[in-house]
């Protein structure tokens, strides 16, 4: 069964009823188990789970140390272009947003990469707006070939590609990809994406699987928290991760937990996530999926990221700018507001102060 078929078999009203019926005793029993079902994962996301947050934190910490040690991988995004053909109503890069559009050329890309590499980072995430016209696959491939000699791991966050296109980029040096579904609610998805290629819900949801089939080593998924009920989105994200892990056991599946941030278009989230709810989501992920990577971006505050070092997160961004060419020009953009703008050195120092080791390199493409 494809993932879209599995998703369509889920009824939100039944999930909500299960969440409501979960007791504190249920959560405590689950925390004593060595392996969890998807029903158990849903229980950890329940209001009763919030009442057991301290016990969940201790369990998540133990499982993280067991599988990842006391380490935190660091990376940074590099924005190469901000042209976009989509009408996402929550994004500052939206097609009708009144922002200055630009795109880096080959020499710009190399300068940005050299600047990032000088900080010691060896993991980089290349991003473009979702425009096939302005950022074709050939442009992304050329960029990968430019930066690959400088970094041990090169990932992308771009528009949906085909299996063949992912294979093409893997040959150029691609190691990982990130694609947020934004929301797993198909009706809401259609409302939030009024036009553009991204409007195709099924293509979007199938794309991480295309990357797996194309030989991408690390596939990172996630919902943009705040667009819909966070518990339902968190559950469906976990369901998606489980599907990919079962179908592609050789792929490293990871989950990001971004909360929507203020941006140029002024979109106000209908389901804002409290800090404790974000923590509960991350703890539940770690407990239910002990080997999965969990990424926490600079959307979150320094205080929040400091506290989550020991509670399940395995990867954080550092030295972040969301501006095209921002690493060399020292600028930022209107895509969304960064909450934690600490440098790579400052992030590494914070991690060491907590008794953890910042990891600049944990993989080498041979």
Task: Summarize the entry for a quick read.
With 366 residues, this protein is α/β, with parallel strands linked by helices. Helix content is 43%, strand content 13%.
Q: How many separate domains?
A: 1
Give Rg in angstroms: 19 Å
Order of strands across the main sheet: 1-2-3-4-5-6-7-8
Shape: globular
The CATH topology assignment is TIM Barrel
Main beta-sheet annotation: 8 strands, parallel, barrel
Explain the overall architecture.
By secondary structure, this protein is α/β, with parallel strands linked by helices. The chain has a single domain, classed as Aldolase class I (TIM Barrel), CATH 3.20.20. Helices cover 43% and strands 13% of the residues. The chain has an eight-stranded parallel barrel, surrounded by six helices. Strand 7, helix 14 and strand 8 form a beta-alpha-beta unit. The longest helix is centred in the middle third of the chain and has 18 residues. The two termini are 35 Å apart.
Helix and strand topology:
Layout: H1 3-8, H2 12-21, H3 24-31, H4 38-44, H5 47-51, H6 53-68, E1 71-79, H7 106-117, E2 123-127, H8 137-147, E3 153-157, H9 163-172, E4 176-182, H10 186-192, H11 201-213, E5 218-223, H12 230-247, E6 252-256, H13 275-288, E7 293-296, H14 302-308, E8 315-317, H15 326-329, H16 344-353, E9 357-359
Parallel strand pairs: 1-2, 1-8, 1-9, 2-3, 3-4, 4-5, 5-6, 6-7, 7-8
Helix pairs in contact: 4-13, 6-13, 7-8, 8-9
């Amino acid at each position: 069964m494809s993932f879209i078929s599995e998703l369509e078999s889920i009824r939100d009203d039944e999930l909500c009823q299960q969440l409501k019926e979960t007791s504190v005793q249920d959560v405590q029993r689950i925390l004593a188990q060595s392996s969890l079902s998807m029903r158990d994962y849903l229980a950890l996301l329940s209001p009763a789970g919030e009442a057991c947050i301290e016990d969940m934190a201790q369990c998540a910490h133990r499982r993280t140390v067991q599988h990842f040690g006391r380490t935190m991988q660091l990376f940074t995004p590099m924005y190469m272009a901000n042209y976009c053909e989509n009408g996402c109503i929550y994004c500052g890069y939206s097609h009708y947003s009144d922002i200055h559009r630009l795109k880096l050329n080959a020499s710009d890309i190399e300068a940005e990469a050299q600047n990032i590499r000088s900080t010691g980072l060896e993991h980089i995430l290349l991003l473009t707006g979702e425009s096939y016209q302005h950022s074709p696959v050939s442009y992304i491939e050329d960029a990968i070939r430019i930066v690959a000699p400088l970094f041990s791991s090169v990932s992308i966050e771009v528009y949906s590609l085909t299996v063949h296109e992912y294979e093409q980029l893997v040959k150029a040096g691609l190691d990982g990809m990130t694609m947020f579904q934004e929301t797993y609610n198909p009706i809401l998805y259609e409302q939030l994406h009024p036009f553009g290629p991204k409007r195709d819900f099924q293509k979007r949801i199938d794309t991480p699987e295309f990357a797996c089939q194309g030989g991408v080593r690390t596939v990172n998924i996630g919902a943009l928290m705040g667009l819909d009920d966070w518990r339902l989105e968190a559950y469906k994200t976990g369901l998606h991760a489980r599907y990919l892990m079962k179908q592609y056991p050789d792929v490293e599946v990871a989950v990001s937990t971004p909360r929507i941030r203020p941006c140029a278009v002024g979109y106000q989230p209908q389901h804002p996530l409290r800090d404790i709810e974000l923590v509960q989501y991350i703890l539940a992920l770690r407990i239910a999926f002990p080997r999965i990577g969990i990424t926490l971006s600079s959307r979150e505050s320094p205080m929040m990221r400091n506290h989550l070092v020991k509670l399940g997160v395995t990867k954080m961004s550092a030295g972040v700018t969301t501006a095209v060419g921002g690493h060399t020009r020292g600028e930022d953009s209107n895509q969304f507001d960064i909450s934690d703008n600490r440098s790579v050195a400052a992030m590494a120092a914070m991690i060491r102060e907590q008794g953890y080791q910042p990891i600049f390199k944990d993989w080498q493409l041979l």
